[in-house]
Amino acid sequence: MGEHRTGFGFDAHRFGGTGPIILGGVEIDHDQGVDATSDGDLVAHALCDALLGASVLGDIGKFYPSSDPASVDADSMEMLSDIATRCVDSGYRVVHVDVTIVVQTVRIAPHVDAMRANLADRLQLDADAVSVKATTTDHLGWIGAGKGLGVAAVATVTGVGSDETAL
After folding, report:
1. Superfamily of domain covering 4-159
2. How deeply is 37 buried, as exposed, middle or buried, from its count of CB atoms within 10 A (0-12, 13-18, 19+)?
3. Which of 58, 66, 90, 102 has its CA 20 to 30 A from that of 10?
4. Cis peptide bond upstream of 20, omega within 30
């Protein structure tokens, strides 16, 4: 088996415009969406950066700059699929991801299983290799005041040896 590497990703956005919020490819009813160039799926964005970090390929802005008109309203789950493919092309296979959504005003628990299934599908993993959970800030800071949300993600990849196949 090849070398294991771990990458970390983080994304945060303020609420804005009209809902829904999209997280992990799941539409969640909320009176506001998020201010973002793409569809604003913070789970996908944080995971992209975690995968890119583990594979030492840069960050999401390198591949999807907000200054690029093609990034406007882009499907973040498509971005995640693309980034996962780039990791594989660079010699790594995704083996595990862990996501923590930090939000005060949106109930995440009813949507966790759907997010896990969507992420597992995009990353070509078993659902038991995908962790999604949520927490609040107990009303501290801008997230606690209900002004937005943040997502942290960790990804583990393994180098693909000559006797292994990617994905």
Report:
1. 2-C-methyl-D-erythritol 2,4-cyclodiphosphate synthase (3.30.1330.50)
2. middle
3. 90
4. yes
